[in-house]
Predict the structure.
Amino acid sequence: MADYSQQINAWFSNFERRFDSRVPTIVAETATEFYKERFRTQEWDKSPWKPLKPSYAAKKSRGAGRILTRTGQLSASIRPSVTTAARVVISAGSSSVPYARAHNEGMRIQGVAKVSGFTNRNFMGKGKPVQIKAHTRKINFQMPRRQFMGPSRYLNARLIERLTKGLN
């Protein structure tokens, strides 16, 4: 009888170590997949993103009808940056995608833009070229919040489901 109890204890301790080592990987993969999926569904926790302005949407050639998807770099930048037994961190953005935070959180953009002088070849639709002088332009723009990362009850439910399947 002592033989079997040692085997059972060894099996459970081995199972526990295997499960503990898989948990961070399951969490990282599930969260990354969930966050990238937001770009397809264009919503956060069943709340749709604010639509594009019609004037901007008409100019969009690639990814027409898609919000936050022109080149795909933003969704491609979502990746697990830390995966340890104690902590899993999913991050977005990079040096080529510095605007990730502005889109996720919404942000007021203020400043002064310098406009170089140029020739407008069709000034006010009259077909006459007009020389425009160099000037400055004030910018005060509220970037709408289109959240694709953060705490979510739907992500939590998906994590519980996948971890339960991993345990069984």
